[in-house]
Design a protein that fits this description.
By secondary structure, the protein is α+β, with helices and mostly antiparallel strands. The protein is built from five helices and eleven strands, in the order ααβββββαββββαββα. It is about 30% helix and about 25% strand.
Length: about 210
């Protein structure tokens, strides 16, 4: 899983030969994994099947992969249903809408029988994620393709890692440019996401559901 292309990174760095290809490829893989962890969800387009618990008549159920592209099937307690709807504003965050609510067996506790959890009796098969750079269906402005902000963030971080690696900037702890200050680790391989890159990624961070 890589979030940017080797050739694009080389163009950004002004590298015209293949001498750095192996190192840059490793850095692209590392940065891609770092960004995916920061965003909080898998990014590659794929098919998923998972079991979910009932959410006590709420109209939205949270899937574990996002953004939601399409739904193949949903069963509740073994029976297939089709009264759900993929709505773009909710699908963006992996949520599937059902007007009648997602309901099922629940677990309660206490004298007032407060509901604390639902039964894991909902099974969903669906497609979610983005086409990534290098995928056959990827285009820079494609609706189903990885947003270019994320691609750009990957390129910027790889270029920064490479530049500090070349300069041997071990021990560098901060970098200030204008109103932005970045703090790095003790070697080029330990450079965290810079403040400017985190701002670029901010619209895509998934914080989960309370």
């Amino acid at each position: 899983m890589t979030l940017c292309n080797l050739e694009d990174v080389k163009t950004l760095l002004g590298i015209t030969d293949n001498s750095a290809d192996a190192k840059l490829t490793l850095m692209i893989k590392a940065v891609s994994s770092q960004i995916q962890s920061y965003l909080g969800y898998k990014l590659a387009m794929a098919d998923y099947t998972e079991e979910l618990h009932s959410v006590n008549n709420r109209q939205l159920i949270q899937l574990n992969a996002l953004p939601l592209r399409s739904v193949a099937s949903v069963t509740v307690n073994g029976a297939e249903i089709d009264d759900y709807k993929v709505i773009s504003e909710y699908a963006r965050w992996g949520q599937l809408y059902r007007g009648n609510g997602w309901s099922g067996a629940v677990y309660t506790r206490g004298f007032t029988h407060d509901v604390v959890a639902g039964a894991w009796e909902i099974k969903a098969s669906y497609r979610a994620g983005y086409y990534l750079p290098g995928d056959e269906n990827y285009t820079e402005d494609g609706e189903d393709s990885l947003p270019y902000d994320i691609v750009s963030a990957c390129m910027q971080m790889v270029a920064l890692r490479y530049q500090y690696d070349v300069m041997g900037a071990v021990g560098l702890k901060s970098h200030t440019e204008g109103h932005i200050t970045d703090t790095f680790g003790d070697s080029s391989s330990e450079i965290g996401l810079t403040e400017s890159v985190r701002k670029l990624l901010a619209p895509y961070v998934w914080y989960g559901v309370a």
